[in-house]
Structures are given as C-alpha cells and as structure tokens.
C-alpha cells in the first residue's frame, strides 16, 4: 500500500476514472452546463471544466476562462453531492387498495455505486454533517445509508478560494483532512501538470494500485502545499465562530432580523443549495384508479407549509423564517448534532438571488461594522 | 371508487379564456380514460355537445368574468355545483385580459369593433372568486395537467389537494437547473412565483414569466430592487408584472410602483 504522498500525472487521472468504471462505479464530477460548473456523469477528461474558473459574489456567479488548462481550477458551484446521497425527490412506496385494506409495493432500489470526483474539503465536512443527521441517531435513514456506504470519494484540495468562501474560519478546509479514499492537489507549474495525492482508505490504496503513480518528491509536496496555502490566503469571507451560538440566542429580537426580512424573498434557494440542509416533506398522492404513492422531496424552512401545524403555519413572517434558517445552521444545530450546520462553502451567499450573506448578518448582529 | 355507487358528476365551464386549460384535461390522454371511469362527465362542451342538467358534484371553471351576462351565469353555475374549482390564470386572477383593468376598455371597443354599441363588456376582467365562493383555485397559464389530476383525485378521495404554494425556485433546484438570474443576470420572476409548472423556462435558459401567479409570501419589492441592479428599467419591470397574472394583487400592486 502506498504510504506517503504520491504523484499522478494528468493522464493518470483518466486512468483513475477508467479503473473506477471497471470496478463498477458511476463516476460523477464537475462539468460545465448552463453557465456554471455542476456535478454530473464523467466519462472523459474532456467532460471536466478544463481551463474554467468562476467569479462569485453575493447573488452573482460567472464562469471565466483561466488562461491555463487546469481541471479543478474553480470553486464550488450550485450543485452539491447531497443531490446524489439525499435525492431531491424520492418515491418511498406505492400502495393499492385491496379488499378494504392496502397492499404495499416497496421497490428494491437499483442503486449505482457512485464515485465522486473532485470533492472539496468543505464538502467532505458537509457529508460528515449529513452522516450525523441521517446515521448518527437512533433512527437511521435507510435511503441515505444505502447510497452513502457505497460511495468512493476522490477529494481535490482547493488551490484557490472564491469571494464567498469561508471554510478557513469554520475549519473545514481548504485541505481535505479525512473522509476520502483518495485526495489530490492539482499542480500546474511551467509545462508540468500533475497531482500530488494522498491515500485515505484501503479501497483508495487498492484503486491507486491499479494505475501508474510514483512516490512524490519533497519538492512536489511543497509545491502542492504552497498552492493550498494560497487558497487559505484568498478566502473572500469569514465567520467568527466563537460564542456564536450564545450570541444568536441572546439576539433573537435584534432589529437586524426585520432588516434582512425586508430584502429576503423567502424563495428557499439558500436551503436547497446548502450541502448540509436536510429537510424534506413527505407527500401522499393518489391517482384515479386508487393507487397511492408516498414521495419525499426537499423542503425548506422558508415555505409556509414547512411549519404547518394543526390550524396554520407557525412561521408566517419572513423574519421568523430567516431567523429559523440562520439560528438552525449556526446555533440550534450545535445543540441538536454537536457541530455547526455550516461548512463555509458560500453557496447560500452566491445563489441567494438577492445576495443575502449570512456572514454579514452575523457580523451585523455582533455589532461589527459591515 | 366502488363501481356500484353513482359516479360523481363533473362539469366543465368556460368564461373569458383561450380554452387552453380545458385542453389540458383532454390532453390527459391515458388518464382521461381513468377520469371518465371515475366520474360521469355531465358537461364538457370542448369534448362533447351532450349536456346533462345539474346539479353537478364538481365544476371546473375556466375563464374570467368580463361581461354582465357572465356575471349572472357564474351565479347559476355556483348554485348547481357542490364543489367549484377554478382552473387557470384567467379564472384565478383575471388572465391576460385583466390588462384592461389598467386601461380604458371603451377606447379598446371603439378601436376594435365596427359597431361598438353592440358590445356589452365590463370595465374590469375579474377572477371567479370575486363573484362566488370558490372551493379551490388551481393556478397556471395553462394549468399543469398533473396538478389537475391531483385536484380531481383529491376531490374523489375527499382529501386536500397537494398543490404547493412555494416559489418556482424549489422546482429549479430539485431538477438541478442552474439559476438564470445568478449565473446569467437574466431577470426572473421565479422567486416570487408559485411553483407548479416544473420550472420549465429556466430549464431553457429563460427567466420565469410568472404563469402561476404570486407564491404565498412574495417579496416583489426586494426582487425588483435587484432587477434594477441588473439594469432592468421601470417600464420593463412593469411589463414583467403585467402578463397572465396582471390582476393578481401582489403583481398588480408591484406593477403600479413602476408606472
Ligand atoms: S450555510 Fe451557506 S455557507 Fe454554510 S454550508 Fe450552508 S450553503 Fe454553505
Ligand atoms: S436551515 Fe431550514 S431547511 Fe436547512 S436544515 Fe434547518 S430547518 Fe431544514
Ligand atoms: S436568504 Fe436569499 S436564498 Fe434564502 S430565502 Fe431569502 S432571498 Fe431566498
């Protein structure tokens, strides 16, 4: 087994994809679509966002050309791996009315073995957070579990950070620490293009053993580390986490909630793009022939139905909804799961259609000048 | 449905509209046979000229009220219907013809008709709910046929229809569509519009046109402030809010701000 850091040439990456395919994995990773870098099936290196990067700000995302041939020279986009581990819409069962009772049809799900290529450090933590949510308690989610157990993870460390990133302040990145099978750092230096890698599991070592690689030179490791350090220096945002929970609990009636509610569209985008948000709504449908179906779909604390109890919705105002979102991510999540619900990926800032920024809201409530 | 029981009767009515929503019912194809099996279609002129007298268990009403005669007709339909469901933007918000609400309809009649004195029309195009009690409003221009089947099925099974009132954005995110406003700066009504279409337009790189009317908690003022930053002028903003759901309160109020 490869012990220390290794080097994979650019061409080795294609061999990695092929080795994973040969083992029966469905390889998923970054690709350019609809003006953004999204996650979809990968079969060739050309499917990757070669030479692309992104410019992100609150409510704004633009693809840009890099001027080099980097394969992973971008920051996280609108998709997260949650859409594969915790699908947006899932049919739970079908039932048919028979002789006054019900006959249930549970379909055995034909699940592919996913290989995620290009998982960022913040995303690794997001997966760990969802592991805690779905698998950490007394009741495990069988759908998440079945998908999660089989995933092969190729992490790719960030060598640049975006304007809405703040993984450094929540200690989730930019370097992948744990939870991967293989982790790579892309290095473009002069006319060399290679990856410095690290093995994270037995499975990772096994796959690596099937493709050409060699031990990394100290100078190559240093190059890779310098690239990652560069990302740390580029963090566009920060979030002070010390005493955050207490601060929010003490400020549940802060005037800032009203101010942000005036701008918030209660559209729910922030919760949908967030890689840790897990809420779903369970819906029953019947068709005209008496077949009933139960489905589960992503929901959001920004909808009225989300807090519908007998007699009406509990959170009617946008203020109450925004406060639920922010205090759940940053405070009650800690009580519930023993960790922060935010991994600093910045998606909720970029993909909020009106650029609402949780780091700015927290700073304002702390009394800092923004 | 147990087959021995009398089948519930269904009637479909048309007011000022383009017929597109009724066509969604005909468009159900496979499911239409199921509908025909589950209900007795007592009145549906679009499909058959055979009309059976009321009362009806379920009336689907398409179109808005634009004439004094229609204002009377809807009263009679309400009286002969146990459940009355309005379908489409015309019936639920007044439709595109509600643009007349912001103009001089007499001037239109003078320009369009050779003998305007024969035309008896109301100043405003209004939704059915302004005239009679409506049991459920199904939005859309046109309505979504899956949602229509859901409403009919819910009625037959005596349950509440499962028609979400949240934004179109949740549908974009569920299908994995990239936000056109964030990634391309294209103005989009999705965040203030009710879901139901399946987020078709953004999937084809267009902004949402608001066919399903305002979502349950629409912040049009904040959206329009962002559009201004994107470079959309006042006239364009007014036009965006004045289409198929121009008469819906949240949209008509927002359009007025840009007058
Ligand atoms: S709250 Fe925002 S920044 Fe934090 S993990 Fe979720 S999307 Fe990313
Ligand atoms: S922030 Fe809202 S949508 Fe996200 S997990 Fe918490 S309650 Fe659910
Ligand atoms: S914070 Fe932004 S993304 Fe979230 S609901 Fe409000 S407007 Fe939508």
Automatic annotation (TrEMBL), chain A:
InterPro entries named in the record: 4Fe4S_Fe-S-bd, 4Fe4S_Fe_S_CS, Helical_ferredxn
Q: Give start and end of each 4Fe-4S ferredoxin-type domain.
A: 253-285, 333-361
Give the signal peptide, or none.
none
Instruction: Quote the PROSITE patterns the UniProt record gives.
Output: 4FE4S_FER_1 (PS00198), 4FE4S_FER_2 (PS51379)
Keyword terms = Iron, Iron-sulfur, Metal-binding
Keyword presence, Metal-binding:
yes
Question: What GO MF annotations does this protein's record show?
Answer: iron-sulfur cluster binding; metal ion binding
Gene3D superfamilies for this protein: Alpha-helical ferredoxin
Q: What is this protein called?
A: 4Fe-4S ferredoxin
- Organism equals Meiothermus hypogaeus NBRC 106114
From TrEMBL, chain B:
InterPro entries on file: Hydrogenase_assoc-protein, NADH_UbQ_OxRdtase-like_20kDa, NiFe_Hase_small_N_sf
Tell me the GO molecular function terms: hydrogen dehydrogenase activity
Superkingdom of the source species: Bacteria
- Give, as one word, the top-level EC class: oxidoreductase
Pfam family membership, one: Oxidored_q6
* Residue span, NADH:ubiquinone oxidoreductase-like 20kDa subunit domain: 18-154
* Keyword field: Oxidoreductase
Question: What is the protein name stated in its UniProt record?
Answer: NAD-reducing hydrogenase HoxS subunit delta
The scientific name of the source species is Meiothermus hypogaeus
Question: What gene is this protein translated from?
Answer: hoxY
